[in-house]
Amino acid sequence: MADDSSMRAVGWARSLPISAGVREARNWTRSHMTALGWDRTAPALVDAVVLAVSELVTNAHVHAHSAAQLILTWDEECLHVTVHDASPRLPEQRRTDHDALGGRGLLLVDALADDWQIRRCPRGKDVTACFQPPASEQGRAREAE
């Protein structure tokens, strides 16, 4: 009898230098959401993931002055979106006035993701957001693997 208790996961990783911009990160992420079939079955979730990626990569480039390593991991329950940068300084959620042009990135990630966290690393930090698809999509995504 097969052991179903082991976790299966699939993942993708991409390094994004500051010169690459966030458009490349968005397009790359959207292509992987398409590979999971979510563009057809959960388009609003794809948009949320792509927007969160945009915000996190922007934070790495603008605030950390660093290249961003973007990692997507699907573990059959959650799509983990991790952005690593080289700055040890942890991001802070800021209160912004209504006229401010920026400062809402982490507020957006908090609103879009089911969960998120920041973790210090030996060479910087990781910001990881978790996105759980509707229950019906979890089964379909498993089939797409």
- Uncertain parts: none
**Spatial sequence of strands, sheet with the most strands:** 1-2-3-5-4
The percent range for strand residues is 15-25%
Q: Helix count, per DSSP? A: 5
| Rg of Cα set | 16 Å
Mean pLDDT metric: 86
Number of strands: 5
> What is the overall silhouette?
globular
Through-space gap between termini = 21 Å
Helix content: 25-40%
- What structural category arises from helix and sheet content? alpha+beta
Main β sheet profile: 5 strands, antiparallel
Order of helix and strand elements from N to C terminus = EHHHEEHEEH
Q: What's the topology here?
A:
Elements: E1 10-16, H1 21-35, H2 38-41, H3 43-62, E2 68-74, E3 79-85, H4 105-112, E4 115-121, E5 124-131, H5 135-144
Antiparallel strand pairs: 1-2, 2-3, 3-5, 4-5
For the structure shown, list the relevant keywords.
single chain; 145 residues; alpha+beta; 5-stranded antiparallel β-sheet; globular
